[in-house]
What we know:
Helices cover 19% and strands 37% of the residues. The chain has helices at 15-28, 37-43, 66-76, 102-111, 187-190, 273-280, and strands spanning 3-8, 32-34, 59-64, 83-87, 119-131, 137-142, 145-150, 157-163, 166-173, 175-179, 203-208, 218-220, 226-231, 236-240, 243-248, 253-267. β8 (157-163) and β9 form a beta hairpin.
Amino acid sequence: xxxxxxxxxxxxxEVPGLVRQLAEWAGGGGHAVWLPPGDAxxxxxxxxxxxxxxxxxxxxxxxxxxxxVLRAIQVIDGAAVPVLGVNVGxxxxxxxxxxxxxxxxxVRWMTGREGTEWRTDSRMMLTVGCLHxxxxxxxxxxxxxxxxxxxxxxxxxxxDLAIDGHDFARYSADGLIVATPTxxxxxxxxxxxxxxxxxxxxxxxxxxSPHMLFDRSxxxxxxxxxxxxxVGSRSADVAIDGRRVTSVxxxxxxxxxxxxxxxxxxxxxxxRFHQIVRAKFGLGVEE
Length: 287
């Protein structure tokens, strides 16, 4: 029996119908489908709500765009469960199939041979820790990036960056991004960071609107870690994959390092990363 854990975009009208379609097909084969209670309530699918943990699933099905995939990765919290991204939205980097291919793709995954009919695309993740001056601490996982960013418009913040425990630079900027190669096409790209193939393992450190002579991104080895201390007098926010998780005050420290867990995505063809970049930015030759 296969077990399908579904995460759905709350505002896409197609999502409830896709869940029911998957559930009807799954029920005919003795398979299980469930949603977290919050998603089920938002989508009017209370009959599929369950507190069953997502790591019991055989496959996570994400119905939405890249943001929904990121939320699915957060929900499974490092569990080695593969994710199938169904693109209910605009062209995304992380989604794989269109809605009309949902059932055929699930069948192909169940019946086909890995490496022939489908493959696993593994992506590095980050461990992000925050240590406050009062001794309290928190920790999260990120697939795209961790960002320490100013709270007040018109004011820069000061951030001391150390690499593997050795001081590197003090940044005066609107913020600092530490991204994975997967996240190189997200916020890091808008801050003029490099586009990096997701097949790589690396940490990308990119300042946001730096007010200093050194304004380049750093590409670090995946064995390295970075330590960022907020200095000066202004507080800042910490965001993980676009979601604000906490605030930091001067003297608080954020540490970012490669995580021991890996995100796994189901793919049915060759890597489309470069073709998606080409389409997103209109890099084709006009005739």
